[in-house]
Specification:
There is one protein chain. The chain has about 350 residues and is α+β, with helices and mostly antiparallel strands. The chain folds into two domains: about 120 residues, no CATH class; about 120 residues, Elongation Factor Tu (Ef-tu), domain 3, CATH 2.40.30. It is about 50% helix and about 15% strand. The protein is built from 13 helices and seven strands. The chain has a seven-stranded antiparallel sheet with strand order 4-3-7-1-2-6-5. A hairpin with a 5-residue loop joins β1 and β2. α2 crosses α3. The longest helix is centred in the middle third of the chain and has 39 residues. The radius of gyration is 32 Å and the shape is flat. About 5% of the residues have low confidence.
């Protein structure tokens, strides 16, 4: 049965998207706490499952080579061999086209090339390069057209001047050429110079502030309130994205929004468990069905006791509920938040 990318298992879909968007197998494997080869095999199985009818018509080695090509796991030399496979096998082309259409949003402007539709481009950047080249040609053509119109206007002005000027035609031509070739220096007035220096000073001050001032950075997490922990208080299991695992540490501040209200309480991380899979989280903390439904994939797990201020309610009222938490995982300099030129 043919499926779409959104119908795959969440973890398998995330693995495929991470790989086709350029992440290395090692980075994806670290994020999900699995071996790189297991990550690649799961991603290959997911692609083959998009259209098993076509996948089963291909030889096992040919299918594996084609799947690695669609996952961008091949060197230019390996991609050249896969290109030959696509040229001689109609089923391979149909399967590659189906996968490319299913993952169009993830491939973006540079999908894997397919014979009959694209030129051979193992790096997958031909579409972007051609688009940039086309834009550059359009700009150059516009500049040439602007210069041509300026020349025509100048000629028309010279012709009109010839009709009324008492000077010789050759003198007027020399004068026009001299205007094009000579550019006399023009000095800015003192007020403009002062304004420019003031602007430069403001830019320097802004740069110093951006380098020296830091701002706190937060990461949102799903918070599961499970069985009672120390001193009779419920335990808060905070699930941060796996990419934040290296930044989650004991003692960091977490702002928790209590379920069923807008009230917030401030907690401190007491224990860090590292990255756990969804199944390990459900099994380890014996989650209720409602809490287990909130666990959709691997997460960096942190534990802390729920301390309620007076008037916030009874601790037992919050057991087996799901809340939203914001963890203060560090600070960044303002300059690091600015967009990089060229991105």
């Amino acid at each position: 049965m043919i499926t779409t990318a959104d119908e795959l298992a969440p973890l398998q879909r995330d693995l495929i998207r991470g790989l086709v968007r350029g992440a290395s197998a090692q980075d994806v494997a670290w994020a999900v706490a699995r071996p790189p080869e297991e990550v690649l095999e799961s991603a290959r199985a997911g692609l083959a499952g998009l259209n098993p009818e076509l996948a089963t018509q291909l030889d096992t080695d040919d299918l594996r080579r084609l799947l690695d090509y669609l996952l961008r796991r091949q060197s230019p030399g390996q991609a050249a061999g896969t290109w030959e496979l696509l040229e001689r096998t109609a089923v391979a082309r149909r399967f590659a086209l189906f996968v490319r259409e299913a993952l169009a949003d993830d491939y973006g402007a540079a999908p894997p090339a397919i014979p009959g539709l694209d030129e051979f481009d193992p790096a997958g950047r031909g579409a972007v390069v051609r688009a940039q080249a086309s834009t550059a040609r359009d700009r150059a053509r516009g500049r040439r057209e602007a210069r041509r119109r300026a020349r025509e206007r100048r000629k028309a002005l010279i012709a009109a001047a010839h009709e009324q000027s008492p000077y010789r035609v050759r003198a007027m031509e020399h004068f026009a050429k001299g205007q094009e070739a000579i550019s006399l220096p023009r000095f800015a007035p003192p007020l403009l110079v002062a304004a420019m220096w003031s602007l430069l000073a403001l830019v320097a001050i802004a740069f110093v502030l951006a380098v020296s001032i830091t701002v706190p950075t937060y990461s949102q997490a799903a918070a599961l309130l499970v069985e009672r922990g120390q001193e009779g208080w419920p335990t808060v299991v905070a699930l941060f994205p796996p990419s934040e695992a290296g930044r989650v540490r004991r003692g960091q501040e977490v702002r928790l929004t209590l379920p069923g209200s807008e009230r917030k309480v401030t907690l401190r991380i007491g224990q860090v468990e590292g990255v756990l899979s969804a199944e390990e989280i459900r099994r380890r903390f014996e989650l209720s069905p409602a809490a287990a439904a909130a666990v959709s994939g691997p997460a960096a797990v942190a534990l802390m006791p729920l301390r309620l201020p007076p008037g916030a309610g009874r601790p037992a009222d919050f057991v087996d509920t799901v809340a939203v938490a914001d963890g203060h995982l560090g600070d960044r300099r303002i300059v690091s938040l600015l967009p990089v030129i060229g991105d």
